[in-house]
Specification:
The chain is built from seven helices and 21 strands. By secondary structure, it is α+β, with helices and mostly antiparallel strands. The chain has three domains: 131 residues, no CATH class; 81 residues, Dipeptide-binding Protein, Domain 1 (Dipeptide-binding Protein, domain 1); 138 residues, no CATH class. A six-stranded antiparallel β-barrel has the order 3-4-5-10-7-6. The chain has a four-stranded antiparallel β-sheet with strand order 2-11-13-12. A three-stranded mixed β-sheet has the order 16-15-21.
């Protein structure tokens, strides 16, 4: 009984935790187009491993080490190089907007060959390029932090905790070039909504025009609002964008019910409405228990011991009852009506699916 009450309370909290529409700042619902981070990539060598590096069959690692040593005036054949303490790796990172030369960024280092672990390794100086133009934007170097441990005790005995083939170097890359992205083109900037919605986009454009006193903002579609930068504001773009970001706009969103069948989670949005409908809910539970007893023969008899099953069947049928749900129900009334039926979150999933099929649920049903 207590667990059933807990399930009902949890369901009520999930239903009432649905997000509500209202005023929000532009910076919380949209971003300025062009201010996205740009991906950097690089190929490098990790040294100083404790016998966990690439094997002899990883040819590109041997050639990389031979090429690196040749720059120091040492000529080696790739066949002469033993790679137990060396591993080839790929570097990835994100170039943040407005970053400047001399700044730093975090680097993720991932094994490219058959190294068993990068634990304790040090990345040798490696250039990182931007894939968009192939130009070098950073140089990475430093000790790796893997966050994982891999131990091989021999004889087939090994132990591993987390992944030790991927590591990070916090602040391990130094920027060699300034970020050169553009966010204002032809004296226009675009605001991109995180959740596309025609009504919200129209409200954003209307609010900006009211603030600037002219038809300077236009909703291009459900996710993009184009803003013309006035002539007097072009020398103070930072202040202009700051004023736009702090405008409070009435947001809107479609009515939606989100269901996760794996966890039994149901989230209902504020604008969800249910037409006149009657709901009946009942449970039929069949439980079968089998116990075993032994039958022993008489002493010195010719019989044999037998294992006898004892099957016990019980059926519980909780009586279903109708609950009326009037037209234009709000979220809290929907939760109250379903809780009066004593349903669990998983039962609610079936009920909402049935409401949708019956045409009584005026909302989009999303099943995760």
């Amino acid at each position: 009984m207590r667990s059933s009450v807990i399930r009902i309370l949890v369901a009520t909290l999930v239903l009432l935790a649905a997000s509500s529409a209202g005023a929000a700042r532009v910076k919380d619902i949209a971003r300025v187009n062009g201010l996205d981070g740009e991906h950097l990539i690089g190929y490098g060598i990790v040294v100083g491993l404790n016998g966990t590096g690439d094997g002899s069959r990883t040819g590109f690692t041997s050639h990389s080490v031979a090429g690196m040593m040749e720059k120091f005036g040492i000529t080696l054949s790739p066949d002469e190089i033993k790679l137990k303490n060396v591993a080839a790796v790929m570097l990835t990172g994100t170039l943040p907007p407005f970053s400047r030369r001399g700044g730093s960024l975090d680097v993720t280092v991932s094994s490219l060959g058959d190294a068993s672990s990068l634990e304790g390794g040090i990345l040798v100086m490696t250039p990182m390029i931007r894939q968009a133009d192939g130009l070098q934007y950073a140089v990475a170097q430093g000790p790796l932090s893997t966050g994982g441990v891999s131990v091989d005790a021999g004889g087939g005995n090994s132990s591993r905790k987390n992944s030790s083939n991927v590591g990070r170097i916090p602040g391990g890359a130094t920027l060699t070039r300034d970020w050169d992205g553009e966010y204002v083109r032809d004296n226009r900037l675009d605001l991109v909504l995180h959740s596309p919605d025609f009504t919200t986009a129209s409200n954003v454009a209307r609010k900006i025009n009211g603030k600037l006193g002219g038809e300077l903002a236009t909703a291009q579609d459900a996710s993009r609002v184009s803003v013309w930068v006035p002539k007097e504001q072009r020398y103070d773009l930072i202040g202009f964008i700051s004023d736009l970001e702090n405008l409070a706009v009435d947001t809107d969103r479609a009515a939606r019910v989100v269901i996760n069948e794996r966890t039994g989670t149901v989230v209902v949005g504020q604008h969800v409405e249910i037409k006149d409908v009657a709901i009946a809910h009942g449970n039929l539970q069949v439980e079968v228990k089998t116990s075993y007893s032994a039958s022993q023969p008489a002493p010195f008899g010719e019989g044999r011991s037998l294992l006898l099953p004892d099957v016990e069947t019980s059926i519980q049928d909780s009586r279903g009852r109708f609950t009326m749900m009037a037209d234009n129900n709000t979220v809290d009334k929907v939760a109250q009506a379903l809780n009066e039926l004593g349903v669990s979150p998983r039962d609610m999933i079936s009920i909402f699916q049935a409401l949708r099929e019956a045409g009584a649920l005026e909302a989009e049903l999303v099943i995760m």
